[in-house]
Specification:
Number of strands: 5
Structural class: alpha/beta
Number of helices: 5
Order of helices and strands: EEHEHEHHEH
Shape: globular
Distance between the termini: 32 Å
Amino acid sequence: MRNSTTGILETALEYRNQAFLVVDVGGQRSERRKWLNCFEFVTCMIYVAAISEYDQQLFEDEEINRVQESLELFEELINNRFFCNTSVIVFLNKSDLFREKIKTVPFSKCPAFDEWGGGEPPLEYGPATQFIRELFFARMLQRPELFTRTKQRRLTRKTLKMCSMMWQI
């Protein structure tokens, strides 16, 4: 079951006498207009992309592939003037589901994967995830550094929860 973030959720945290404000914004198209007030003064962005959804369409528009949309949104954000001096971390989320899916579902289901040269299923996890990382890197116009991590869906939630708990100490 999918739990979508709606609206803007803010959590104030403190870690080692340093205040943090974590802002979680809904990723659906209908939620994006609310983001503009959140962009200024951002020092770090965590972008979460569900890589297992490469064969699925958006809820809002069944003509648009979810990973294609995620890559396009990432490109728009990463090159936005509000984020020019912002550190960026990309979580390639749902890697556990992705690992299973690439055994049977071809990459040709995603328009963004047209340049994939690694053959058809079953695909190898390492080259497949590296290919997706490179798609994200390719969308940066002038950013010297980007951090990516692949995470299982439950581990991403756990990682963010642990960070939150750590910051509250």
